[in-house]
Design goal:
Blueprint lengths: L1 H15 L7 E4 L8 E4 L8 H17 L3 E2 L2 H10 L16 H8 L3 E15 L2 E14 L4 E14 L7 H29 L18 E7 L6 E2 L4 E8 L3 E6 L7 E2 L1 E4 L2 E7 L4 E2 L5 E7 L8 E3 L1
Parallel strand pairs: 2-3, 2-4
Antiparallel strand pairs: 1-6, 4-5, 5-6, 7-9, 8-14, 9-13, 10-11, 10-15, 12-13, 15-16
Helix pairs in contact: 2-5
Amino acid sequence: MKGRHLAILVAVLPLLGGACAGVSSDLNREVPAPRTLAVLPVRGTLSFSDRELVRRRLEAGLSAAQLAVVENRWVDRVLSARGWMADPAEFTMSGLDPAQVCKALGVDGIVIPEGFRTSAVNIVVFYREGLGGQVRMVNSDGKLYWSADYFAGRSGGLLVGMGQLFTAVREQFETNARVAFPLRLEDYATAVLATLPHPDATQLPPIKRPKIEKLAVTGVGPESTIPAGTRITVDVSASPSALVTIDLAPGISRLPTVEHQPGRYRGIFELPYPIDRGQLAVIARIRDRDGITGVPGGKS
C-alpha cells in the first residue's frame, strides 16, 4: 500500500509544481499615468458573484494605492445609460472605444479585468487550487499603461495508509475549495497591485464633498392624512454627476432620482400607503461617483 501511495505522489508532483509563479507585469512609462480610474466588469469563467468580488477587491486595492477610483455602481449606471451594458454578467469591451468610454465615465483611465478563472486538481489526496486572470489599465487615448497577469495558487498533499480515510479527506478538500476563493483573491490582488506604481500622496487633490443646494416638493395637498397613491415630485439642485436618493417618511427611503440636467435631479414617487402629514419628512442624500457623501438636505 505504501508503495502505491509513493507512486501516486511521484505521478502528481508535476501537477503540484509551479503554483507560486511570479506576476508577469508590464509598465509603459512613456504613457501618462491615469489619475482617475474606473474598474469595468470582470470577464472570465467565474460565476458572476465571484467576478463581482474580484471587481470590488480591485476597486478597493486601487483606492488604497491613493488612486481616484469611481464607484463600481456609478460605472454600471453610466454603461447601462449609454446602452453599452444590457447585462453586467455579459459586458464586454469588444467594439467599444476606450477613449469614448473614459469620456462618458469622466475618467482618464479604465481598468479591464479579463480571463479570470479558477483551477483545481484533486487526485486522491493531493490537490492544487488557485485563481488567475489578467488586468489591463488603459488611458483615455486607448494606450496601454500597465498590465499584469498572475495565477495565485496553492498545492499540497497527504499520504494515508487506510482506504477508509479517502472519503473524509476528499470531503475536506471540497470544503476547503469552497472557502479558499477569498484567500486566493487576496493573494492575487496583493501580488498584482504591488507591481503598480503608487502616486505621490502629496500631489493628490483635496477631497471635495458633494452638496445639496436646494430641494423642492410638489404634489402634497393640505390634508392631515396623505392618501395612498399620492404622487409626490421631488426636485433637487446639487453637485452634478452624483447619486441622489430621497427619503419621504419612515419606511419609505432611499428612493432613486434621475439627473435630467447637470446638477438637476428629479424623483416622482407614489405613496404605497397613507401617512400622517406629520410623518412626511423629505430628505435628499447625495453620494458622488467616488463614494464621498455630502450633508443631507431636508424639507418637511
